[in-house]
């Protein structure tokens, strides 16, 4: 089974209130080195078999039409998900 990761972020000109709230909380929690935060979305799409270029193209098309709102969001990454070392996912 293959897995594709799609990351979607708000466009730079769009207000990100969740990112602003996190940015305000970080210094209070001892993480003063971060100056701004933008919060986005991550989708993991599973496919039967390997992730091929055709699967990646279909994932990009889905990301641009269904997974994101192109008026306020950018699709910033569509990639094969890395293998998780020590994963405890059940096998079928």
From TrEMBL:
Domain of life assignment: Bacteria
InterPro entries: PurS, PurS-like_sf
A biological process from GO: 'de novo' IMP biosynthetic process
Keyword line: ATP-binding, Cytoplasm, Ligase, Nucleotide-binding, Purine biosynthesis
Catalytic activity: N(2)-formyl-N(1)-(5-phospho-beta-D-ribosyl)glycinamide + L-glutamine + ATP + H2O = 2-formamido-N(1)-(5-O-phospho-beta-D-ribosyl)acetamidine + L-glutamate + ADP + phosphate + H(+)
Keyword Zinc carried by entry: no
GO cellular component, as recorded: cytoplasm
Entry EC no(s): 6.3.5.3
Pathway(s) the chain acts in: Purine metabolism; IMP biosynthesis via de novo pathway; 5-amino-1-(5-phospho-D-ribosyl)imidazole from N(2)-formyl-N(1)-(5-phospho-D-ribosyl)glycinamide: step 1/2
Enzymatic class: ligase
MF term (GO), any: ATP binding
Subcellular localization: Cytoplasm
Function of the molecule: Part of the phosphoribosylformylglycinamidine synthase complex involved in the purines biosynthetic pathway. Catalyzes the ATP-dependent conversion of formylglycinamide ribonucleotide (FGAR) and glutamine to yield formylglycinamidine ribonucleotide (FGAM) and glutamate. The FGAM synthase complex is composed of three subunits. PurQ produces an ammonia molecule by converting glutamine to glutamate. PurL transfers the ammonia molecule to FGAR to form FGAM in an ATP-dependent manner.
NCBIfam families reported for this sequence: PRK05974.1
Family: Belongs to the PurS family.
Assembly description: Part of the FGAM synthase complex composed of 1 PurL, 1 PurQ and 2 PurS subunits.
Protein's UniProt name: Phosphoribosylformylglycinamidine synthase subunit PurS
Organism of provenance: Pengzhenrongella frigida
Name of the coding gene: purS
